[in-house]
Design a protein that fits this description.
The chain is of the alpha+beta class. The chain is built from six helices and ten strands. It has two domains: 20-128, Homing endonucleases (Endonuclease I-creI); 139-192, no CATH class. It holds the Pfam family LAGLIDADG_1.
């Protein structure tokens, strides 16, 4: 797709992970944002209906899993219940998860089911892997706003990345590598960066 605007012509491309290591970080970010490991050890990741193609991409790369439409909602879930598929997921995300509760789910549920090696939090520079891409896919949004100032000739354009979380631990991690600031919604008790 080519776009033409004030800044010239450019080609828009979505860069997918290029290898299994990069895919593992992307998948870990998705699970940290909008996924969980059930008590039976199966892995579930939720998507807005418009993002169904991402669920299909996961299924294709992992080679296992099913995609279900969520009743009465504009959402789908990718669910992996097959042991061979779960072992692939475990190997992809081991030592790449950042969310403490997801690490606990992995170690208490997936390890119990598969008898596989545990995972641990491993610090990594988020500018060097695809974890943030997966996390933003799940819990992030991009906002573009334009304002016309009465004393200015041009529109003022602002582009912002917004991530909402109930706990600020992951936002602090992102802020360390990228900057930004925490904002707290008093109504919802949700942290933003």
């Amino acid at each position: 797709m080519t776009s033409s605007n004030l800044f010239g012509n450019f080609e828009l491309k979505a860069l997918k992970p290029q290898n299994y290591e990069e895919f593992g970080y992307f998948l870990a970010g998705l699970i940290d944002a909008d996924g969980h490991i059930r008590k039976n050890g199966s892995v579930v990741i939720a998507f807005h209906l418009k993002e169904k193609s991402v669920a299909c991409y996961l299924k294709k790369v992992i080679g296992f899993g099913s995609i279900y439409k969520v009743k009465n909602r504009q959402a789908v879930t990718y669910e992996c219940m097959n042991n061979a598929g779960l072992l692939k997921v475990a190997n992809f995300i081991r030592n790449k998860l950042k969310h403490a509760s997801k690490i606990t789910q992995f170690n208490e549920r997936l390890v119990k089911r598969l008898k596989c090696e545990k995972t641990a939090y491993t610090p990594s520079n988020l500018t060097k892997n695809h974890w943030l891409a997966g996390f933003l896919q799940g819990d992030g949004s991009f906002n573009i706003t334009q304002h016309k100032r009465s004393n200015k000739l041009f529109l003022e354009t602002r582009i912002a990345v917004k991530i909402a979380q109930k706990l600020k631990d992951l936002l602090t991690l992102i802020q360390t590598d990228f900057g930004g600031k925490h904002l707290v919604s008093a109504i919802e008790q949700i942290f933003f960066i």
